Amino acid sequence: MLYYIRKKWLQSAQVCFLLVCEWGLQATASLFMIKTFDAIFCLNVHDFLFWTGINLGTWGLYFATSCLREIVQARTIRILNNEVRHDLYQTLLEKSYRDFHVQDSGEYLSWLTNDVKQIENLAWKPFFECFGRIAQVCWCILALMALHWSLVAAALIISLLMWFVPKVFEKSLGQRGKDCSEQQASAVGTLKDLLSGFDIFRLFQKEKHFLEQADASSELLEKPAYRLKRAQNIAYGLMGYVNVASQFITDILVMFLALKGFVSIGVFAGAGNLTGGVATGLDGITKHRLSFSSGKPYFEKIHFQNKPISCEAEPQAVSIENAISLQNVSFQYGTSPVLDNISMSFEKGKKYALVGPSGCGKSTLLKLLLGWLPDYSGTIAIDGRDIRNFTPAQLQRQMSYIPQDVFLFNTTIRENITMGDSFSDEEIQKALRDSALDQEVLAMENGLETVVGEGGTCISGGQRQRVAIARALIHKRSILLVDEGTSALDQQNADIVENTLLCNPELTLILVSHHLSRLICAFFSKSTPEITTQMEMPLQDLL
């Protein structure tokens, strides 16, 4: 928490300064209240009206300062929340392909929504409120010191008591906060899964089963938060009792001092506000300390030492002059072998097709080439250089991957193709022609500005795949890995796309398919003997 407060120290300091002013004005108003009561007891109308006017003016400044502080605090919390999300994004970017996919996207979504909201409620707001309470206590003690030293001594004794008592609850509440975070993340993932499969529930008339699972997930979402709140309220209740008892003892002391003549009668009325301010402030501090303990687990997911991602700094591409070679490569998921002692080579500018049934390792091979699955045995090399010496980002500066299930962002076709980069209209039109998408985009009412919907649901499956192919072509990757990339196209459009890919002399193409299309078969039947030999290597027999 303090990492972010220090990082945004200027905004945080503005809130803290206004809090000091706010509570200073309130303590000052309490002292003016004493002057007002003294004037009443002395039947001095002039002084009464004077101090009443001063008091009202002070309270006016207090509420104006309080309003300004609320606005500045809300802006600062917004900045802090965005900073946390930024670091969470970077934490996700630092994960490898395999580590990222260990957890469901629903859990990551929970990090960015539920966890950030919990951080706001358990860290940012309590921090500023706690600082305000500290300012309140300090101002009230200074005011009490101006009245009588014994009142300050009583306040210090109460401070020590209220500081040590919460330690009894800190460890317990910290564990409750951690449990709440983990269980709510799991519940969000389950709800996301249920909503993703909503059509299947409807299709098989399983509405009752959907409701049962949804209700169970809802309870799992609410129950840990209830348990955390219950534990906090028990602790707060005990702290409140200690607070009231301390305030009661302090009031007796003030009454004794007034009766003995050490302070004026008016002090008895005003000192009650000041001693109450000390007690209330200390009670608030202890509660916020417990909130910090509950919020700590939410920060543990963030990698604070991650390096900033520069929008301008791109990874240096791995140049490919001759070929990518595999020597005795084996890979397995857990204890299930997928690839066994594979050796072959993919030469620059040539075209390859890997054909075989599902589950035989075709897609896995592409992920190995992309550097997504590093836990293989054997050697994969680019021009003799082991790819383990490069990052996946460096490899992907030369490669583009089109998966079987294409994902599109909920934005326009143009944005899905350009991915935020600037391209000329001629470059975009060429990519559309080469992916057999130009005529269909032209027929759309909004053309390239057509919004594809969440996951691309507003366009057909074939159009989604061609948008992905256009995206790959316009970014000029020299190696294209296509995993069933034309499976959703009709024969005419599949032929256009495949012909474009196969006839590009500068493109190294590796196609994965359950079976070869008519066009690909015709292409390879006319290929050089060298390519035909590549197709007959052990990998083809396995896949």
What is the topological layout?
Blueprint: H1 2-7, H2 9-41, H3 45-94, H4 97-100, H5 105-147, H6 149-164, H7 167-196, H8 198-203, H9 207-260, H10 265-299, E1 323-333, E2 336-347, E3 351-355, H11 362-369, E4 377-382, E5 385-386, H12 392-396, E6 399-402, H13 413-418, H14 425-434, H15 438-443, H16 461-474, E7 479-483, H17 491-502, E8 508-513, H18 518-525, H19 529-535, H20 538-542
Parallel strand pairs: 3-8, 6-7, 7-8
Antiparallel strand pairs: 1-2, 1-4, 4-5
Strand order of the largest sheet: 2-1-4-5
Q: How much beta, percentage-wise?
A: 5-15%
- The quaternary organization reads as single chain
Rg on CA atoms, Å:
34 Å
| Helix percentage range | 55-70%
What's the number of helices?
A: 20
Q: Structural class given helices, strands, pairing?
A: alpha/beta
Unreliable parts: 309-313, 528-543
- The H-and-E topology, N to C, reads as HHHHHHHHHHEEEHEEHEHHHHEHEHHH
Task: Kindly report the average pLDDT value.
Answer: 78
**N→C terminal distance:** 52 Å
Largest sheet: 4 strands, antiparallel
Please state the overall shape, judged from the principal axes of the Cα atoms.
elongated
User: How many beta-strand elements?
Assistant: 8
